[in-house]
Amino acid sequence: MTIEWVAFYLFSTVLVLAGLAVILTRNPVHAALSLVLAFFTASAIWLMLRAEFLAISLVLVYVGAVMVLFLFVVMMLDINLDRLREGFWAYLIPGLVVGGIMLAEMAMVVASRFFGPERLPRPAEAASDYSNTRALGQVMYTQYAYAFEIAAVLLLVAIVAAIALTMRKRKDTRYVDPADQVKVRRQDRVRLVAIASEKD
After folding, report:
1. Where exactly are the structural domains of the chain?
2. For the domain bounded by 1-81, which CATH number is listed?
3. Per-residue burial over 134-169, b = 16 or more CB atoms within 10 Å of its CB, e = otherwise
4. pTM of the model
5. For the segment 74-128, what is each residue's pLDDT rounded down to a tens digit?
């Protein structure tokens, strides 16, 4: 067994344990930190697969932006942990069923690679000047250009829909009309009151 296999099994074990910690940890901050560890470990596995651009993107986008946002939201909100634990046992059986199906599918994929009638060939060694970032960009913006643009439009529509759903005019919120603010005169806002001075 080579050092690559040892590193792969080590990273895979850490990834599975971090994923279980995300689900089973009661503290939301600890769950978010476990998800950060899972992202880092997945990026390490992608580095072993020579997908450097995807690994760096995973660290920069998810760990650097999304998880920091999650941590800020979780730590600033006053989350009632007792209410979060109420529905755990109700969703345990469906969660185990879905997890079992996913585990069976992954086992079938791994078993077909080693015990199938025809084994998958190992990928050819890349040239020294090969850049997977350039190859990914060429494929994304040539062969899958329309799919990439459609996904961008869908994300834009989702952002606009989320803003439209959450922007409500609340009754208890004070609102200042800029047009009325511009038309204000000094006589309407300031009144000089003459007060007689007190004598001892």
Report:
1. 1-81, 90-120, 132-168
2. 1.20.120.1200
3. eeeeeeeeeeeeeeeeeeeeeeeeeeeeeeeeeeee
4. 0.56
5. 777 666 666 666 666 777 788 788 888 888 887 887 776 666 555 555 556 667 6
